[in-house]
Specification:
Blueprint lengths: L5 E3 L2 E3 L6 E5 L7 H14 L3 E5 L3 H13 L4 E5 L3 H9 L4 E4 L1 H4 L2 H14 L3 E6 L5 H7 L4 H17 L5 E6 L3 H14 L5 E2 L7 H17 L5 E3 L6 H14 L5 E6 L10 H13 L8 E7 L5 H7 L2 E5 L3 E6 L2 E7 L3 H12 L1
Parallel strand pairs: 3-4, 3-10, 4-5, 5-6, 6-7, 7-8, 9-10, 11-12, 12-13
Antiparallel strand pairs: 1-2, 13-14, 14-15
Bound molecules: iron/sulfur cluster (SF4).
Length: about 350
């Protein structure tokens, strides 16, 4: 994590702050009501920062409307027209994301930097393997990790030359190893907060796995300050996936469900119970810093052992299960009571 702190509206990143979860709306931003509904759904799911495209002057008109009705920092995603960045800044946006590969001349960068400096609005330089500058593509032959890193640092230099360093950098690629290497290079060469993401990952299952590998590898190295899981799905799914990645890296509280994979010994309908319990857990809004491990195990081989390690757990038997709490056997319950019992335990512990 970067030592340097950047404030995006009411969310601070870097400097030991927790990793912020980002997502992006997929509504037409000019459709104010649809965009508002999606941002509120993302907030409800636990999104910390939301980005939307500001691709037209009609879209700019939504910024003030959305600012007044939402509660998390709003980021304007700008491509091609630097004037949209300036107008979004004037309209109360919390952060600007630009792609230096298509934003234009140093003069335009200076113009954006000037407004953002005056309003204390950070800028994310978002480098994407699919839209790298032509010179770097010619130099490296393809969007290699070196090319992505060089592009980000070159753009950062242009902003520094314009007396602006309230920056966040990102280097995204749809190729997971390239994304990992590019971020490792960048973390070695600068101290700007880094926003992590594997881009264009595809649908929910494959995309979540690619993101977990790329983002997770870096977070476990101590690299990264904000994350976005890009999925070809409802953006709310991105928040759930990001939370799982952060939890797996030990960077987030909440309920960690440990469940066995089932085997020929399993005597209860464990897969269904695990799905039902996880669906309920996904709806929880766990206070920061609260952690709970819940074990759902199929039998007595590994079951009681895992269940004892957990804060609460069950180990299944034939038509029944043993409930453990903090390592102690509490009682036997019927199989059909497993999900409701664990759910009550979870709520009693949080
Ligand atoms: S805990 Fe028991 S049921 Fe589950 S996978 Fe292990 S041996 Fe099989």
């Amino acid at each position: 994590m970067s030592k340097r702190i950047v404030r995006i509206g009411n969310v601070a990143i870097g400097g030991g702050n927790r990793i912020a979860i980002q997502s992006m709306t997929n509504t037409h931003t000019a459709d104010k009501e649809a965009t508002l509904a999606q941002i509120l759904a993302l907030e409800e799911a636990g999104c910390d920062i939301v980005r939307f495209t500001v691709n037209t002057f009609d879209a700019v008109k939504s910024v003030a409307f959305l600012r007044e009705r939402t509660h998390i920092p709003l980021v304007a995603d700008i491509h091609f027209d630097y004037r949209l960045a300036i107008e979004a800044a004037e309209a109360g946006i919390s952060k600007i994301r630009i792609n230096p590969g298509n934003i234009g001349s140093a003069e335009r960068i200076r113009a954006v930097a000037k407004v953002c400096n005056a309003k204390n609005i950070p800028i994310r330089i978002g480098i994407n393997g699919g839209s790298l500058e032509k010179e770097l593509l010619a130099k490296y032959g393809s969007p290699t990790p070196e090319a992505l890193c060089e592009s980000a640092l070159k753009a950062a230099k242009e902003f520094e030359n314009a007396d602006f360093d309230n920056l966040v950098l990102s280097v995204k690629s749809s190729t997971v190893p390239n994304m990992i290497k590019a971020n490792r290079l960048l973390a070695e060469r600068c101290d700007y907060p880094l926003h992590l993401g594997v881009t264009e990952t595809g649908t929910k299952r494959g995309g979540s796995i690619k993101s977990a590998v790329g983002i997770g590898a870096l977070l476990c190295d101590g690299i990264g300050d904000t994350v976005r899981v890009s999925l070809t799905a409802d953006p709310v799914e991105e928040i759930y996936a990001a939370k799982e990645i952060l939890r797996a890296c030990g960077l987030m509280g909440g309920v960690n469900l440990v469940a066995c994979p089932t085997c020929g010994r399993t005597e209860i309908d464990l897969i269904r119970y695990a799905e039902e319990l996880q669906a309920r857990i996904d709806t929880l809004n766990v206070p920061a810093g609260k952690k709970l491990t819940v074990a759902l195990m199929g039998c007595v081989v590994n079951g009681p052992g895992e269940a004892r390690e957990a804060d609460v757990g069950v180990a299944g038997g034939k038509g029944e299960a043993v409930l453990f709490r903090k390592g102690e056997i509490v009682c036997k319950i019927k199989e059909e009571e497993i999900v409701d019992t664990l759910w009550q335990e979870i709520n009693a512990h949080l």
